[in-house]
């Protein structure tokens, strides 16, 4: 059973500190009900994909603690998930019924068997592959060799990062309903409305400049970091160096190492351009940074100063994050005032046609007319079908085990959402969350 001790200690401690002297059991029980729903889902999660399980657990911790918590990713055993579920039931119950217990050292006892993250220093000093990488940066990017040697001498190998990117031992079946429920919840919807209200001017300006609806920008930030509440606690230089030179065995290992070496180079160039200490940058185990979780190459290509302070800061400046998300989508082809998704009629013939047309391709490559001619019906009462027959579309399949697969029509803007994260599930979750936030704010 492996988990970072500091993560769980701080999470539990924050829960106690937040509630120790407050007579607000209703609020605590509400947070607890959301938390326990997620831990039940996690306990029933029939997968060995630690990345999926750890992301659910981080959501649990954020829901239990409005305070900002570290985002150290976890490797989790099923035994531990059941233990966590029982522990959090007791934490919630005891905090409500006996506030004095919150002042005790209970939380220390709860984590007495939990271990620190594994890191290994001195792994990248005087290593041939690293030296070759340094040579490339010296020759092509005009870096100082001694400076880079010093940086990599201080960079450490992250065992946790290597474990989390490793392919799972068994491949879990895709589950759209479980995935959707993680993001279409009261925490992201209610906080999305609050985020929109607090940043309405920046969102309106971004929408006007880039043509991207406010709710889409809000939903992306909500899915990525719950509006900046967990941006990651991995030192980016360590994670990218680990993935660039010590990516775990996988069929695509060589390609992934090349990708992460490019990201590592972009990180060092970005730090130099912005006069930032590269060791000061923290984010996800995969190297994503800030409120919108941009990789270093995306920061250099798409991040903008949207607040007018002549700096780009995606970690602390919400306006920069909002503008950068809008710019990213526009640069990838977002079409202003165009739909994202159309719903398909539930009749059997339409569903069969959709099933045959779902080929997994992320770009619109079919004409809508081709499907209409063979009987596909669209469930969009306001759609003027005659003006859209030549519109390029794709069929999005959203499977759930032991349930009929859900199909929808994706347009160009849906395809653009997959450029942020190359997953139909991700893009559709962003769309569904955006619609829920918009409806909640209207009401």
UniProtKB/TrEMBL annotation:
Indicate whether Lyase appears among the record's keywords.
no
Please name the Gene3D superfamilies in this protein's record: 1.10.530.10, Bacterial muramidase
- Domain of life of the organism in this record? Bacteria
**Start and end residues of each Transglycosylase SLT domain:** 127-435
- Which residue ranges traverse the bilayer? 80-102
Give one Pfam family: SLT_2
Enumerate the UniProt keywords alphabetically.
Membrane, Transmembrane, Transmembrane helix
Q: Which InterPro entries match?
A: Lysozyme-like_dom_sf, Lytic_transglycosylase_MltB, MltB-like, SLT_2
- PANTHER family associated with the record: MEMBRANE-BOUND LYTIC MUREIN TRANSGLYCOSYLASE B
Q: What's this protein's name?
A: Membrane-bound lytic murein transglycosylase B
The organism named in the record is: Candidatus Pandoraea novymonadis
Please name the taxonomic classification of the source: Bacteria, Pseudomonadati, Pseudomonadota, Betaproteobacteria, Burkholderiales
Q: Which gene encodes it?
A: mltB
